[in-house]
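pasting for the record
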Amino acid sequence: MDFNLQAYQADHLLHLSAKPERRLSILENARHRWLEMDGVVQSAMSLSQPEHLCLPHQQSIAERLPAQASRILELGLGGGDLTRHLGARWPEARHDCVDLDAEILTLFQQFFQPSTGGAPRLHHADALHFLLESREQYDLVLLDLFSQDGNPLLLLQAPIYQALANCLRGSLIVN
């Protein structure tokens, strides 16, 4: 069921958005639907098992998840691969997803939102701003911010980790 990054072939282009700063596409074949940014696969979903993690690095993350989590925060959404997995794994958990890109949130809802499991609360916000404004405490935080230019500068600066320290009472996983 793994998504082979070397051999994927799309049968259908479901969405294309080209802007000066980036190109977004949603593609699909008989087995998978995936999100590409500037030709790089960001997320892949099995059509028969949407909660299954298709990309190897995400499977590695799943192996490191805590035994239980009731409050989950994802900073960076993409196609929501981990969102669907966590919703199936812990359907009763309260799950917040934050993304700076409104189009990503809309595409998640249109093409990748799980039909079963817990539905996440989606927030259109800057990750640091969300953390600074939040009064919530989280058992699990997944930090998966993306920039076409490499790691976002935010990931290399102290304020994000200081803000995380104020709301984290469990595990932090950085992708």
